[in-house]
Specification:
This protein has one domain. About 6% of the residues have low confidence. It is an all-alpha fold. 38% of the residues are buried. Helix content is 69%, strand content 0%. The chain starts with 21 loop residues before the first helix and ends in an 8-residue tail after the last helix.
């Protein structure tokens, strides 16, 4: 009995990532795997704690203005709300939320390449019609997209609540372009964190080890910049903070946290953070750098780490 021979060749295999959009299949799986984790939403909520504090504080002052029988107390409450610079609130929120952004990046990307190295999954990926660039782009987007979502949700929620509730206090008039600056800032920050974590992940065969090294780099560099910020603040108590020299500013911003603060200052157009409570400003009062400086620095760092990841991703181990 004869019949047509079945075509059992590899060219018809279409499972998983074997299609013209292999990078998107990898990115989609990475995104879904991250947002399904409860820890992702917990960390996203925790990163918004500063916005919650500000909203509660403004609500209290609004109630004082509305219910106080003393005109002086009412005037002070209204003056406080009217004197808030909302871009400074966003700047503080970005600064205070970065530790949570780090944990989110580690959750999403520390094992993205490292675990594939450990399980030899690259043999599967790169033996199919999936190029090295497909693999890297997909892994990068799989980390980048959840980070953008986590960063934007608190900021956009704060923006729209403020636009609806505090428009009488100049929320929208202060910076009409704020609604466009927020997604731009979130994408730049997410791209930087994604590139760092993926670059480190490509160096190891264990996601936990890659995460630990990434966290160590973050905290060690941040320790020295915070220490330097204290020195600068001590000097600024005797002289104007505008006298801080450029080398000191570059050193203060020379960390993962610092680069993103410098970037946020440039995009938001704010030189310092802090609410108008009459006390000293926080360490964000270190004068800002021109926006092109942190952007160039972050581009160089991210580019080097992605180049390293590209060099490290291979289907087989090369023995020299």
């Amino acid at each position: 009995m004869s019949g047509p021979l079945a075509d059992l060749s590899y060219r018809h295999y279409a499972d998983g990532v074997v299609n013209d959009r292999a990078w998107w299949a990898i990115a989609r799986n990475g995104f879904r795997g991250t947002v399904k984790k409860k820890g992702f939403w917990v960390l996203t909520a925790m990163s918004s704690w500063w916005y919650a504090v500000v909203l509660v504080m403004v609500y209290v002052f609004e109630q004082i203005a509305a219910n106080s029988i003393r005109q002086q107390a009412q005037d002070r409450a209204v003056d406080f709300i009217s004197s808030i610079t909302w871009n400074r609130v966003i700047l503080d929120g970005v600064s205070f939320g970065q530790i949570f952004y780090l944990f989110l990046a580690l959750m999403a990307g520390a094992g993205a390449i490292a675990n594939d190295n450990r399980t030899n999954a690259l043999l599967v990926y790169l033996s199919k019609p999936c190029t090295k660039m497909d693999y890297l782009i997909g892994k990068w987007l799989g980390v980048f997209l959840p980070l953008v979502l986590a960063m934007l949700l608190p900021q956009v929620g704060f923006f729209f609540y403020g636009a609806m509730s505090y428009h009488d206090y100049g929320f929208l008039r202060q910076d009409p372009w704020l609604v466009l600056k927020l997604p731009l800032l979130a994408m730049i920050m997410a791209a930087f964190y994604t590139s760092i974590v993926l670059g480190m992940s490509s160096l190891f065969n264990q996601g936990r080890l890659a995460g630990a090294i990434s966290a160590a780099i973050y905290f060690i560099t941040n320790f020295f910049t915070v220490l330097l910020g204290g020195i600068i603040a001590a000097g600024a108590s005797m002289e104007s903070s505008t006298t801080v020299s450029t080398p000191l500013k570059l050193a203060f911003y020379g960390s993962v946290d610092g680069i993103m603060i410098a970037t946020a200052k440039g995009i938001l157009g704010e030189d310092q953070g802090g609410l108008p409570l009459g006390g000293p400003q926080n360490n964000l009062s270190v004068p800002a750098l021109p926006l092109w400086v942190p952007l160039l620095f972050s581009l160089v760092v991210a580019g080097l780490l992605l180049f390293l990841a590209h060099a490290r991703v291979r289907a087989v181990e090369v023995v020299k």
